[in-house]
Design a protein that fits this description.
CATH class of the largest domain: Alpha Beta
Structural class: alpha/beta
Number of domains: 2
Number of strands: 19
CATH superfamily of the largest domain: Zn peptidases
Radius of gyration: 25 Å
Helix content: 25-40%
Largest sheet: 8 strands, mixed
CATH topology of the largest domain: Aminopeptidase
Length: 484
């Protein structure tokens, strides 16, 4: 499905088609009189007497060639509510055969700043569908004509489009099957981001061995595919100020390795690279909207397979940091990928902060379900900023505890640490505690466990099910509000 949006500052004059008007919560249509004949005005009032006015959107046929949509606006409308209203409107359009809609923007109160921009942003985000492998695709086009004085500025149009493209790119990556988006293909796709203005550097296995990134390489050694670390740099400032760093787990398919997962729902493990997809989508968005910030994205790309050469439970590996790890469970692999990536990012780029994202633990789903991502951090300021940004775009995070007392649960008798807590309990916290050991220079750091947020079987306010792209808008909002 393709959405084509046209903006025009002109009088709203239509005698037919799908016509959209905005009204207040009481569905007062008195200010719409000039757009209809006296007979039509009477008919509209009679129709409204029969409607449930608690609904956000009411639609009805005014004639055989004219369909009316009335959308009610709350007095305390904000950006999130505006986006959700746009998403609701998209659901209404799916049942309409004629896919052209004319929106009257003149009735939007002035205090609803940039309402149309957020409304259409929600509409577009909700419209996403992954149909690449269907023989019958939805090739229909939806035309949205916005007429009147309240239209988004050109800069806002570009900003919203950039965020949408980054979010859709993340969703596309997560939606790809494992036989298509393996690490080799993933690395190739990331190299194409150079055309967007990003500096992309790909470290293959040969380079990673020289760097001694053994925890990352150990995860992928059972696969016929390569393992990679990819860095994407965006320089939006003329100075050499420290960049903001984002690190993502990119396990393209996770069988669990020798510690094999149960067969049921293993097909969902194609989305175990969602953390990396968020980082990639964010970096694409920053480049497309020419964000005034220096930023770097780092992703570790591997495939966790059971093979004669696969990593075994009981193996001990030496990380890039020099610290050793005893592998007690090969299905606790994401933290091994992130361990090397985190230390390398901190040492190479010396960032202002590091935020990593990963579908890291099932335990976080037990704790928070699909409503919040788990936030673990060594920095109160960064945590507060993430919580605030999440509330603004409705990609929420909930801070979880870190404490040195948890360290004894991952201390190993045979190495510096072990990769799981065999005692039981605090699965998400001990995973984050493990990651924190690879932040060596006290850089402000936050870990987002997005296992419950990256994929939705039932859909959400701004997605229709499947890959959500959760995190792209959250991190973009953080940057936009606090660092540009």
């Amino acid at each position: 499905m393709t959405i084509i949006t046209n903006y025009k500052k002109a009088d709203f004059k239509f005698k037919s088609g799908n016509l959209i008007f905005f009204v207040n919560e009481k569905y007062d249509v008195s200010n719409l009189k000039k757009y209809f004949t006296s007979y039509e005005n009477k008919f509209i009032k009679e129709i409204l007497k029969l409607q449930d006015l608690s609904k956000k959107i009411i639609s009805f046929d005014l004639s055989s060639v004219k369909k009316i949509f009335l959308i009610s606006l709350e007095n305390n409308l904000n950006s999130t509510k505006s986006e959700n209203l746009g998403a609701k409107f998209f659901n209404y359009t799916k049942e309409i055969k004629k896919k052209e809609f004319n929106i009257n923007s003149n009735q939007i109160p002035k205090n609803f700043e940039n309402f149309m921009g957020y409304f259409l942003h929600g509409f577009n985000l909700k419209s996403y569908a992954f149909e690449k492998y269907k023989s019958k695709k939805n090739n229909k086009k939806i035309y949205i004509n916005v007429i009147g004085k309240n239209i988004p500025s050109l800069n806002d149009q570009k900003k919203f489009k950039a965020i949408e493209q980054g979010t859709f790119f993340a969703r596309d990556l997560v939606s790809e099957p494992g036989n298509v988006l393996h690490p080799d293909e993933y690395a190739k796709r990331l190299s194409l981001l150079k055309k967007d203005g990003l500096k992309v550097t790909i470290y293959d296995e040969k380079k990673l061995k020289k760097l001694r990134m053994n925890t990352l390489l150990g995860v992928g050694q059972g696969s016929i595919r390569g393992s990679y670390l990819v860095t994407m740099e965006w320089k939006g400032l003329k100075d050499n100020s420290k960049p903001l760093a984002f690190v993502g787990k990119g396990v393209c398919f996770d069988t669990g390795g020798i510690s094999l997962k149960p067969a049921k729902f293993m097909e969902d493990m194609t989305y175990d690279m969602a953390g990396s997809a968020v980082v990639v989508g964010l970096m694409k968005s920053l480049a497309l909207r020419k964000a005034k910030v220096n930023a770097v994205g780092v992703v570790g790309l591997v495939e966790n397979m059971p093979d004669g050469n696969a990593q075994r439970p009981g193996d001990i590996v030496k990380s890039y940091s020099g610290k050793t790890v005893e592998i007690l469970n090969t299905d606790a692999e994401g933290r091994l990928v992130l361990a090397d990536a985190l230390t390398y990012t901190e040492e190479k780029f010396k960032p202002k902060f590091i935020i990593d994202l990963a579908t890291l633990t099932g335990a976080i789903i037990v704790s928070l379900g699909s409503e919040y991502a788990g936030l673990f951090s060594n920095d109160d300021k960064l945590s507060k900023q993430l919580i605030e940004a999440g509330e603004k775009v409705e990609e929420k995070v909930w801070r979880m505890p870190l404490n040195e007392n948890f360290d004894r649960l991952i201390d190993s008798k045979n190495a510096d640490m072990q990769n799981i807590n065999y005692v039981g309990g605090a699965g998400s916290t001990t995973a984050a505690q493990f990651l924190q050991r690879f932040i060596l220079k006290k850089t402000p750091w936050a870990h987002l466990d997005i296992a419950g947020m990256a994929f939705s079987k039932y859909g959400g306010a701004l997605n229709s099910g499947g890959a959500t792209g959760y995190g792209v808008r959250l991190l973009n909002k953080l940057i936009e509000d606090k660092y540009e």
